[in-house]
Design brief:
With 595 residues, the chain is mainly β. The protein is 0% helix and 41% strand. A hairpin with a 4-residue loop joins strand 33 and strand 34. The chain is globular and about 75 Å long. The N terminus is likely disordered.
Length: 595
């Protein structure tokens, strides 16, 4: 702290005053990694035969420290739960979730379904949508524990129903949600024909509600996202007041009470893009904004400017101004063979964007497509699918959204027709848009959703731990849809410590081979060997930074270029280890002063 005292005359009787000017200098940290891949690239152990053990052949060298303080190097699992190494979702419901992989909650008297789901900071899943109360659709929201049971800390362990409008002739529906780090839940949708934004407290009680009429008729919010500073970005469409023409709008609202950020975003807090859709009743899709690391905002929806619905993507600055460096004047149109509609997309680490494309042929037969754009909004014709679109032949199917695996592969979720009825479905593409045919069912994986004759109109998807996907949707009970959430299974490898190199069930772990540059080992060092026989020097990957053994090494002096930790990774495959590609997403961080 810098202390400055300002005083007036020191003569007796003179008036005096003083002030304290404070300044805080934080501990600066630095980390660099060499010898092992970063981002979505994989550091490979190599091929491992069942019953064999293999370790990485070279060190992963992590240089860490603080320029003005002591520091600790920590390592933990990227998903902060369960096991370190797994084979990402490979088909079949996860029997450890709910009942036989799913939880079904009958709430209303008609069609009830979730349209969106997100994982919170505690590893629980928040799902929201609508239920039928006998006259109209009203809001439902619930929180599920990691095992698929309702969370007793949310609304007393029950699904919460919400009637905003209080009108027997008006719908209240949630289409999109985002969960804050403090576990408060921001939800966007429609209430009695007006745009709805509301926030719930972590216990499920209402914090605040905003119902906004944009002035010319029906309007609704189709997506919501959180900026790093806590501000809320909302996307939606609004009736223009003329013919069947609809406008798009993007707005930013403050977290305290959902007020428009009139000073710093768009025009008085909102950007309006006119005359994009012409339709008597626009298609309802869930289209959450994507917030880029540079603050820019990307939205994918559809336009009817060319006749049939085509995908329409736009990007704005962080201040809500169309970005001329994206597409044409901030917009890109992807012409569809028939009718294309968007859904939740993903941003890759290299700045490329992947979006789903729910396509129909005009006769009601669906097909699965996923498109990838370069960072400038142009189709990625060089490295993704055909002409920037991946369109596998998987039968009559629909895609609702995409997720990005830790290794860069893309997972799509939706439904697929099986005979006369539909099943929940997953599809996966390689980093170049090639369909993955290694699922248990070939080019897709399916989940029982009650075999409805008509596909559920909506649903949301998110990642659980260990590469499992969690889908919130509806389950057909023979007469109508009930609320449902299900998790697809994966194959995991036991963490070192629960098993060791002699275990027939397999193991995975890390070893600190050595330290250098003044660093001290927190883990027992392997003396440079770290072989699959050094049972005393291997560790399982800690789940979180608070886990035992999360600190790998320490620097007791101020440095950013000298302290090094040299690590190796190893795996033993079980004698009956299922074949496939296994990954272990690991995160390093540096904290100062050292802990």
């Amino acid at each position: 702290m810098l202390l400055i005292v300002v005083a007036s005359s020191q003569f007796a009787g003179a008036a005096t005053s003083s002030t304290v000017v404070g300044a805080t200098v934080p501990s600066a940290t630095n980390i660099t990694i060499a010898g092992c891949a970063t981002g979505t690239a994989a550091t490979t152990i190599g091929s491992i035969l069942p019953g064999a053990s293999v370790t990485t052949s070279t060190d992963c060298v992590v240089t860490f420290g603080s320029s003005n303080d002591t520091a600790s190097l920590r390592m933990h699992q990227a998903d902060r739960a369960d096991r370190g190494m797994y084979r990402p979702v490979n088909g079949g419901l996860d029997s450890t979730f709910g009942t036989a992989g799913r939880t079904v909650n009958a709430t209303g008297t008609g069609t009830d379904m979730y349209t969106t789901v997100a994982r919170d900071a505690n590893g629980m899943f928040v799902a929201a949508g609508h239920y039928y109360n006998g006259s109209r659709n009203k809001i439902v929201v619930a929180r599920y524990q990691a095992n698929g049971t309702l969370d007793p800390g949310f609304n007393g362990g029950a699904v919460r129903t919400i009637d905003i409008s209080g009108a027997a002739v008006a719908d209240d529906v949630i289409y999109s949600l985002a969960v804050q780090p403090d576990r408060k839940i921001v939800m966007a949708g429609i209430s009695n024909g007006d745009s709805l934004l509301m926030r719930l407290n972590a216990d499920g009680t209402t914090d605040w509600t905003q119902v906004n009429n944009l002035g010319s008729g029906v309007d609704w919010a189709k997506g919501v996202a959180l900026q790093p500073d806590g501000n809320i970005v909302v996307y939606g469409i609004a009736y223009s007041g003329a013919g069947n023409i609809w406008n798009m709008y993007l707005e930013r609202r403050t977290p305290a009470a959902g007020a428009l950020d009139t000073a710093n975003f768009g025009t008085s807090g909102r950007l309006v893009i006119p005359s994009i859709i012409t339709a008597a009743s626009p298609r309802v899709t869930v289209d959450p904004p994507i917030i880029q690391p540079d603050g820019k905002i990307v939205v994918c929806d559809y336009t009817t400017a060319g006749g049939n619905p085509d995908l329409w993507i736009f990007r704005t600055s962080a201040a809500g101004v169309l970005d001329n460096g994206f597409g044409t004047s901030g917009r890109t149109t992807i012409a569809a063979p028939n009718n294309d509609f968007c859904g939740p997309g993903v941003l890759q680490a290299d700045g490329k964007l992947v979006f789903p494309s729910a396509t129909t042929d005009g006769l009601g037969v669906g097909s699965v497509r996923a498109l990838r754009l370069n960072a400038d909004g142009s189709p990625d014709t060089a490295t993704w699918g055909a002409g920037g679109v991946a369109a596998p032949a998987v039968g009559d199917a629909y895609i609702g959204g995409v997720l990005l695996q830790e290794d860069g592969r893309v997972v799509g979720f939706g439904v697929r027709k099986n005979g006369a009825t539909y099943q929940g479905a997953l599809f996966r593409w390689s980093t170049t848009g090639v369909l993955d045919t290694t699922f248990a069912e070939g080019s897709y994986a399916t989940a029982d959703i009650g075999n409805p004759a008509i596909p559920p109109a909506g649903g949301g998807n998110t990642w659980g731990s260990d590469g499992r996907t969690v889908t919130a949707t509806g389950y057909w009970n023979g007469s109508n849809l009930d609320l449902a959430i299900y998790r697809m299974g994966t194959t995991t490898v036991p963490d070192y410590g629960t098993t060791n190199w002699a275990s027939t069930s397999g193991t995975f772990g890390a070893c600190l081979a050595s330290v250098a540059g003044g660093a001290t080992a927190a883990w027992t060092g392997g003396g440079g060997s770290c072989t699959a026989a050094d049972n005393g020097t291997w560790y399982g990957i800690p789940q979180t930074t608070a886990s035992t053994n999360a600190v790998v090494a320490r620097s007791t002096i101020a440095t950013t270029t000298a302290a090094q930790a040299n690590l190796r990774f190893g795996m033993r495959a079980a004698s009956a280890q299922p074949p496939g590609v296994y990954i272990a997403p690991v995160t390093f961080d540096v904290v100062a002063p050292m802990v």
